[in-house]
Amino acid sequence: MRSFDLSPLFRSTVGFDHLNHLLETAARADEASVSYPPYNIEKHSDDHYRITMAVAGFAESDLTLTAEGSTLTISGKLTRDEAKVEFLHRGIAGRSFERRFQLADHIKVGGASLVNGLLSVDLVREIPEAMKPRTIKIDAAPDAKLIESKAA
């Protein structure tokens, strides 16, 4: 495992210290957990995204979605009793999983659906009004009045 020291980058920045944590977490990701279950991340527009995850064999009651801070956690655990079933071949993976996604600032979960074994999680960027760019009107009138009063 490689360790990156990013402290020189943080000398001239404020509020980006969580990037170091994100990079370390990504470097520690286990290969097995990265490949199951398979998923896609789609961009529908600048403010709308969708995570689609293949969860064949899982019912809605077997899946848990949790949004906490900037982390979306999707976990699945089969609750059916399969001890009574004798498999001649088992090609559909039904093992438990937990997958975490780091969401960017102002990304919120808009909803989720499970259709034909595909779990779709809609994500929406909601920028607060205070954070949106705004145009500030330049008013030249007060300065002009000040100059006129000095001249008189």
UniProtKB/TrEMBL annotation:
It comes from the Bacteria. Keywords: Stress response. Residues 30-141 form the SHSP domain. It holds the Pfam family HSP20. Belongs to the small heat shock protein (HSP20) family. This is Heat-shock protein. The lineage of its organism: Bacteria, Pseudomonadati, Pseudomonadota, Alphaproteobacteria, Rhodospirillales.
